[in-house]
Amino acid sequence: MAEPTNTPMPASTPVPASTPRSSSPLQRYSIPSLTPNATTATIPLWPSTTSSPDTASRKPQRPIVLHIGDPIKYNFDTYAEFSAAFEVIRPPTPERERSEFIRALKEKIWGDFSAISRPFWGTGGEMGRWDAELIDLLPPSVKIFASAGAGFDWADTKLLGERGIMYCNSGLAAAEAVADFSVAMIISTFRHLPWCMNAATLPYLSSSGSTTVDAKKAFRECHARATAASHNPRGHTLGLIGFGNIGQQIAAKMGSSAFGMKIAYYDVVRKPMEVEKELNATFHDTLGGLMKVSDCVVLCTPASADGRPIITAETLRYLRPGTRFVNIARGSLMDEEALADALDSGVVGAAALDVHMDEPRVSERLVKMATGLEFDERGYHPGRVMLTCHNAGGTVETHVGFEELSMRNILAVVRDGKEAVTPVNLHWLRGKTT
Q1: Mean of the pLDDT values across residues 216-240?
Q2: How many CB atoms are located within 10 Å of the residue 336 CB?
């Protein structure tokens, strides 16, 4: 899911292999409606509560929720229910900067709050990574941290669990948007869309002096030669690394009659037979085994437990020449230099990356492959790579869902004493076993 500039992107603290993963596509889940239930016009919302000396001494009859980030924008009916159940404190932006945030936690100016809510990716990350420095300062009263986004490599979910704090993400809300974006990237690798698009817009670049490439020649060469490099996805094997909500939705879309791809997958935990049967998916128990049979590989798994990439020069050797590659998971999962080498050698024929190893910086080698318009000395065609800006999960509907799930998780756990909708660290909670 797209993360904004104020969202920390540090070394991963991801879900380990033993964490339960989704066993069915999003549409199987019975979750609250993610449709906005009010307009986005300006209406009275709860105030941006500025901390005051008497905050800690107050004894509210309702549990306190610490809301970090912007006010609710979409789900006003749910917020009415939420604010009736809890006293919501929303620190202003200056108090969310790390040094001020730490001071506030030490001085307990927000009292003994029971939950933390971060309903948007665009704000609420000003304090930086949730590591021991922050987590150790949380009051014992905290039961749950419910946040927007599918990824959670900015928070130490293991340490939160060991403190007895449940962490909930909002991956369900982003799954469809990410899967849709993945479809576009998969098609791009089969049809070489960057090449076609760059060649079509070249006349405008030429007239502005941005390039000296012959625009008419580039257009004609793309028109004549892209056909020899392009294929229909139908009948080809799509290899999915990770088969949770997003992987299964990609399988449902690309394996349907619309595209007719064969579906194969690798995951640390094999999915139930009924899921495989419904999606006509074949399980491979090794990453190498999956990559050997795939015509296009999509990386859609959480960040690795040790923070190391799983797509390296070694694993790329399993691919057949010309295989396509897509990454909509995490940039840390892929060695981009190894991918560039594989593109240079022809082992990878085309690639599409929505996430990058050193965001917001993008690999210069891959940029050249994305924007190039001339054949290289070995005859490899230009525009072999599609690059986007961590956009896959970024839709209005996704943000509506993030906001809704953040509140629903807290209502379920704190108000109702029930199970959370989207917990990710149950195995680390006190008394839990892996």
Answers
A1: 92
A2: 21
Same domain, 194 and 125: no
Domain count, the chain: 2
Residue pair 346/355 in contact (Cβ under 8 Å)? The answer is: no
Express each pLDDT in 318-377 by its tens digit.
Answer: 999 999 999 999 999 999 999 999 999 999 999 999 999 999 999 999 999 998 766 666
Average pLDDT value over all residues in the chain = 84
- Tell me whether residue 183 is in a domain: yes
Which of 212, 232, 211, 230 shows the shortest CA–CA distance to 222?
Answer: 230
* pLDDT surpasses 70 at 431: no
Length of the chain: 434
SS3 183: helix
Task: Name the residue range of residue 233's domain.
Answer: 175-387
SS3 99: helix
Helix (H) or strand (E) run with residue 324 in it: strand 323-327
Same domain membership, residue 120 and residue 202: no
Residue whose tokens read 């997958």: 265
**CATH (domain of 378):** 3.40.50.720
| Residues 109-139 pLDDT 10s | 999 999 999 999 889 999 999 999 999 999 9
Diameter over CA atoms, the chain: 75
Domain shared by 133 and 244, yes or no: no
The token duo for 48 is 């941006």
Answer whether residue 78 is part of any domain: yes
User: Do 228 and 341 belong to one domain?
Assistant: yes
Q: Which range has highest mean pLDDT (7-21, 27-41, 299-313)?
A: 299-313
Burial of 48 (0-12, 13-18, 19+ CB in 10 A): middle
SS (H, E, C) 327-367: ECCCHHHECHHHHHHHHHHCCEEEEEECCCCECCECCHHHH
Q: How many CB atoms lie within 10 A of CB 201?
A: 13
- Asked whether residue 206 falls in the same domain as residue 92, the answer is no
Verify that 194 and 335 share a domain, yes or no. Answer: yes
From start to end of 101-244, where are the E strands? 115-118, 144-147, 166-168, 237-241
Residue 39 lies in a domain: yes
Same domain, yes or no: 422 and 326: no
